[in-house]
Amino acid sequence: MNTATDRIERQIHIKAPRSKVWCALADAESFGDWFGVALKGKRFVAGEPVEGNITYPGYEHIVWQVVIERIEPERLLSFRWHPYAIDPSHDYSQEPTTLVVFELEETHDGTLLRLVESGFDGIPPGRRLDAFRMNSSGWDEQMKNIDAYVASH
If DSSP codes are grouped into helix, strand and coil, which group holds residue 23? Predict the structure, then answer.
């Protein structure tokens, strides 16, 4: 495993209590609001799949699918998915997934949110670079999105 190509790491300090950031992460509907996926009426349950249509303009035809791996209240949420699975005619089900882990740490003036997505070295070579590149820039945007969401809710 080459950590330079196998994992994406991001972090952001959010000026809000950990409980508020946790709600934005662990409540499926709230998560969907900032992440850009329709999750109305859905719940995150460890071991269970969750899916909903992407709400980002131009990508509404894509179904976002994850399996929730772990939930440790106000500390950790993780899921597995097929990264950059945007071609509806392609069957990704036989490909390895990546693991997305969100961790929260309370700070003196808010919450540190750490994100790690790992497992890219297992993605088929023909899509690996694109998946890594697109998810890398995507996580940059998603860190801004959750910060703005928490600030406005």
Answer: helix
In angstroms, rounded to a whole number, what is the distance separating the alpha carbons of residues 116 and 102?
A: 7
Long-range contact list for 59-64, CB < 8 A, 24+ apart? 59/86, 61/88, 62/86, 62/88, 63/88, 64/37
Task: Give the DSSP H or E segment for 30.
Answer: helix 28-35
Please, are residues 120 and 136 in contact by the beta-carbon 8 Å criterion? no
Name residue, tokens 């959750």: 146
CB atoms within 10 A of CB 8: 21
Domains of the chain: 3-152 (3.30.530.20)
Three-state secondary structure call for residue 103: strand
Q: Percent of the chain, pLDDT > 90? A: 95
The mean pLDDT of the chain is: 96
The tokens for 38 are 């329709």
> Model pTM greater than 0.90?
yes
pLDDT at position 4 over 90: no
